[in-house]
Amino acid sequence: MSASAFYVYCIAESSIATQLAVDSLPAAIEDDAKLEWVTVNTLAALVSQVPRETYSEDSLAEHLTDATWTAIRAMRHETVVEYVAKRASAVPLRFGSIYLERAGIEKMLTEKGRELEEIIEHLRGREEWGVNVYCDRSVLLSSITSVSPVLRELVERAEQAPPGQSYLMQKKIGSLRVDEARTAVNRIIDQIEEKLKTQTDDARRLRILKVETTEHGELKAKFAFLVQRSGFEEFRDAAERLAQEHQAAGVRLELTGPWPVYNFVTGFSG
Amino acid sequence: MSASVDQITVIDEWESSDISLLETLDHVLNRGLVIAGEITISVADIDLIFVGLNVLVSSVETAHEVLRKHQME
C-alpha cells in the first residue's frame, strides 16, 4: 500500500503495547493491513494502515452512507478496542479518527501526552456499564390509578356521577393519568440514577436517538456508569433491587457491558 | 453470559441480538474520544450514519449478516 493513511483505534500505555503482541490482536478495520503500535515515550496508539483513497474525506463520507460497510467496520473497531480494554486501561477513540502520516500520530501523542496519561490513570481498573430503562406504558397507566389519591377519588366520583358528567370526568381521568404517569416515570428514572451513582465513580445520562420500543416497553432513559471491576457485583445487585422495586410500575432495567469507557473520555479537549 | 432475572436483563457478551449490535454501533459512532485527527467524521455526519444504521438493524436479517461477517474475522 503506497498511498495509505493511519486509522487510530485507541491509546494505551506503551508498557501494554509490548505485552500485547500485534500477532495476537484481532483483525484490523481493513483486511489487507495488520494492527500496529505507534509508541512515543509512555504512550502507544493502536493503529492500522488504510488505503488513503477510501479514507479520504470525500470518499469516506460516501462509504459511510452504506450502512453495511459502516456497520462491519464499526464492529471491527469495537472488537479491537474491546480486546485492549479487557487487558489494560485504554482510551477508546471514536470511529473514524484518521491520520495521513505516522508523524501526525506521534505529534498528537507528544502534545496531548499529559492529558492522555491522566485519563488512563483515571480509568484504571474501571469499565463502563450501560443501563437502559424501559417502561411498559399500559402497566404503568393501570398502576398509576391505584397509587394516586387524586385519581382514585376521581374514579370513585365518576362511578357515582350521572352519565353525561361521568363521561367528562372519564376524559379528565384519562389525561390526568397520562400526566401522573409521566411524572412517575421521571421520578423513578431520577431515583435509579441517584441510587446507581452512589455505587459508581461517574455517570452520564445519554440522549436517546430514536424512540425504541421493544418487548420491554419504550426506552425511557439511557445511562452510562463508570464502574470499578471490583465493585461490579454491588452495582449489579443495586440495579436488580431497583428493578424489583419499580416492577409494578412497568419499569424494566437492562444492563449492557462491560464496554470500553467510551462515555468517560469525551470531556477531553482533543 | 446473559443472566436474567424477571425484571432485569444483563447483556454482557456478543449475542446475535439486535440490541447489542445497535448498542455497539451507538457506542462506536457516537461516543469515544474525538481527537484532532487529520480526517475525522463530524458530529452531524455521525447522526446521519446512525439513522441509516438504525434502519439496517431494524432489518433483522441484515443485522445478522453483519454479525456473521464480523465473527468470521
Summarize the topology.
The complex is a heterodimer of chains A (270) and B (73).
Chain A: E1 4-13, H1 14-19, E2 35-40, E3 43-51, H2 57-64, H3 67-85, E4 91-99, H4 102-111, H5 113-123, E5 126-135, H6 137-147, H7 149-160, H8 163-199, E6 202-206, E7 213-214, E8 217-228, H9 232-245, E9 251-259
Chain B: E1 8-11, H1 18-30, H2 43-58, H3 60-72
Low-confidence runs of at least 5 consecutive residues of chain B = 1-5
Number of helices of chain A: 9
Assembly state: heterodimer
Number of helices of chain B: 3
Radius of gyration of chain B: 15 Å
Overall outline of chain A: elongated
Describe the structure in brief.
With 270 residues, chain A is of the alpha+beta class.
Explain how this protein is built.
The complex is a heterodimer of chains A (270) and B (73). Chain A has 270 residues and is an alpha+beta fold. Chain A has 2 domains: 121 residues; 137 residues, Alpha-Beta Plaits, CATH 3.30.70. Chain A is 47% helix and 27% strand. Chain A contains 9 helices and 9 strands. In chain A, helix 6 packs across helix 8 and helix 8 packs antiparallel against helix 9. The mean pLDDT of chain A is 91. With 73 residues, chain B is mostly helical. Chain B has one domain. Helix content of chain B is 58%, strand content 5%. Chain B contains 3 helices and 1 strand; from the N terminus they run βααα. In chain B, helix 1 packs antiparallel against helix 2. The relative contact order of chain B is 0.14. The N terminus of chain B is likely disordered. Classes of the chains: A alpha+beta (270), B mainly alpha (73).
